[in-house]
Specification:
With 145 residues, this protein is mainly alpha-helical. The protein has a single domain, classed as Arc Repressor Mutant, subunit A, CATH 1.10.10.10. It is 70% helix and 7% strand. Strands 1-2 form a two-stranded antiparallel sheet. α2 crosses α5.
Length: 145
């Protein structure tokens, strides 16, 4: 089987960009930016998350992450505490209100994602995960990382 690789790559980009656009629109409908959504997700799911971690994991500039954290701090959702293991770093901590807020937002997102996955067959889900992982492995190798 011969694939037209340029068309295949172009189609892959269209799907990837449309998926990102949907997540961004979903976040905006919930009164936040996609970057804020990603920060909430990472802080909730990363033990001892720091601003440096967020910049690295999300590939966002320090200024962007700092602005998001300052906004969340001004709303009483997070605070930053000095890391006892590395005094130069500050660990991002949810307040009880912030944890509730993040849980609420992320639960709504999970509901939408679950609905999408539930509309797929187990084979489609396994294929999506398997093929996405395979592409990542091969692209990482091709990009020499």
């Amino acid at each position: 089987m011969h694939l037209d690789l340029k068309s295949t790559i172009r189609r892959y980009y269209q799907i990837w960009l449309e998926t990102n656009k949907l997540y961004s629109q979903w976040a905006e409908q919930h009164g936040i930016t996609i970057n804020t959504l990603l920060v909430l997700y990472m802080v909730r799911n990363t033990e001892r998350c720091t601003q440096t971690d967020l910049c690295r994991m999300l590939m966002l500039p320090k200024q962007t992450v700092n602005s998001i954290l300052k906004n969340l701090e001004s709303r009483g959702y997070v605070s930053q505490q000095t890391d006892s293991a590395d005094r130069r770093s500050k660990i991002i901590i949810f307040s009880p209100e912030g944890r509730d807020y993040a849980e609420h937002v992320l639960a709504e997102l999970y509901e939408a994602e679950s609905e999408a996955f539930n509309a797929m067959s187990p084979e489609e889900i396994n294929g999506l995960i398997s093929h996405s992982g395979a592409y990542l492995r091969h692209f990482r190798k091709a990009a020499h990382q």
